[in-house]
Specification:
Strand content: 25-35%
Distance between the termini: 21 Å
CATH class of the largest domain: Alpha Beta
Number of strands: 23
CATH topology of the largest domain: TIM Barrel
Number of domains: 2
Helix content: 10-25%
Oligomer: single chain
Largest sheet: 8 strands, mixed
CATH architecture of the largest domain: Alpha-Beta Barrel
Length: about 400
């Protein structure tokens, strides 16, 4: 482990990922770990290694680094480029928004492209100069042709255990999760195989009935992809995927809190119905996120940013193409919609870390990796530390 210059962040309004500790301080040790958390009233009684630096948070929010577990691209870089340089570009762009760790997410654009995208991510891992790469998120290919969303129809596949194994093998143990449709034939066998191989399955791009969803939950599909989007709707005679996720508190869900993909009142309803610890904020953002221009490209399609703040097709601006959200903006939105910032931060830090078993991160408590953000009142980052090293 590289030696890090010890640091004390003082005068913090600390949101640990689980609780709030006002007027506090965080000590980051030479190993890049959280060494201590304490009230400012105890600072004078503390001793630190020679050369320890200090950063005054001046009452601003200090919290764990944000973790984006579903993201396709940002700043002109994307997984669709199938290059390590582009994945590393994503890493450097993301840290500017307070994201300290992410799962590059691959579209199911045929087996060869999936494998090339995996190779690019694997090649980039360990070379990051910004947000750390936690592994690989594969969105598909075993999804419903009735609910493709923006995913290419021709790449959708029936359940194929050998195909699944080839994808996982090619990821060399770094495929963290995969989106699937629980209603597909042979999904039970695939779910058991995924469990044996340590891959978390999410229900998404699915036309499942309520009963299909319950059967999926019974074989371990307990998380879901971009809730409300590309899934069977709530109906009073068939609650569908949406109903199953709302009704069953143990079912986790991603949500894109941009106010476009899901109406803000439905996001607020979700937070009232589901335990906060089972909601994960994600961006699902596309390659041109953060760029300015009338003609941008995402997955080979000309897109533009709508007045509402999402990407739409240039040819048909009524066609929603994808998200332009950043995770700090998602937290700011949730706060504007009446969800407390400490809960919103938990949804972007501690929750994804727990669900995906990133056990050394997502919380500011002693022994965890010192991925730490200092945010101003608008959730713009004043300082971002990855492993105790300042990046912003």
């Amino acid at each position: 482990m590289n030696t890090v210059q010890p640091l004390v962040i003082t005068n913090a309004n600390l949101k640990t990922g689980l609780t709030v500790i006002p007027d506090s301080a965080v000590f980051i040790n030479e190993n890049g770990l959280i060494g201590d958390v304490f009230r400012m009233s105890r600072l004078s009684s503390k001793t630190f290694p020679q050369g320890t630096k200090y950063f005054d948070a001046a009452g601003d929010t200090v919290c764990p680094g944000l973790i984006d577990t579903h993201i396709h691209g940002i700043g002109g870089y994307g997984t669709e480029d199938m290059s390590a340089e582009s994945i590393l570009g994503m890493s450097e762009e993301l840290v500017k928004y307070g994201i300290t760790a992410f799962l590059p997410t691959i579209y199911p654009d045929g087996e060869e492209k999936i494998k090339k995208s995996e190779e690019a991510i694997l090649d980039a891992m360990g070379k990051e100069n910004g947000a750390r790469i936690l592994g690989i998120n594969v969105e598909g290919p075993f999804i419903s042709p009735k609910r493709p969303g923006a995913l290419p129809q021709e790449s959708i596949s029936p359940v194929d255990i050998d195909y699944f194994d080839r994808i996982i093998d090619h990821g060399q143990g770094h495929v963290v999760c995969m989106t699937v449709a629980p209603e597909l034939k042979h999904m039970h066998a695939l779910a058991l195989r995924a469990m044996a191989r340590g891959v978390t399955l999410l229900a998404g791009h699915t036309d499942a009935s309520y009963e299909n969803m319950i059967e999926g939950m019974q074989c371990g599909i307990l998380h879901s992809t971009h809730f409300f989007n590309a899934m069977s709707r709530l109906h009073h005679r068939n609650p569908g995927a949406v109903g199953a996720i709302l009704i069953n508190p143990e079912m986790c869900c991603e949500v894109i809190a941009d106010g476009v993909h899901v109406h803000r009142e439905l996001v607020k309803l979700l937070t009232r119905l589901k335990p906060a610890e089972n909601i994960v904020l994600i961006t699902d953002s596309l390659k041109p996120t953060g760029l300015i221009g009338n003609k941008l490209q995402a997955n080979g399609v000309d897109v533009m940013l709508s007045e509402e703040g999402a990407f739409v097709s240039v040819e048909d601006n009524s066609l929603l193409n994808g998200s332009a959200l950043t995770l700090n903006k998602a937290i700011a939105n949730m706060s504007r919609w009446g969800v407390s910032p400490d809960i919103s931060i938990q949804m972007a830090t501690a929750n994804p870390a727990r669900i995906y078993k990133f056990n050394n991160m997502g919380l500011i408590i002693p022994g965890k990796v010192a991925d730490v953000c200092v945010f101003d009142s608008n959730f713009n980052p004043r300082a971002v530390f990855v492993g105790g090293v300042r990046k912003v």
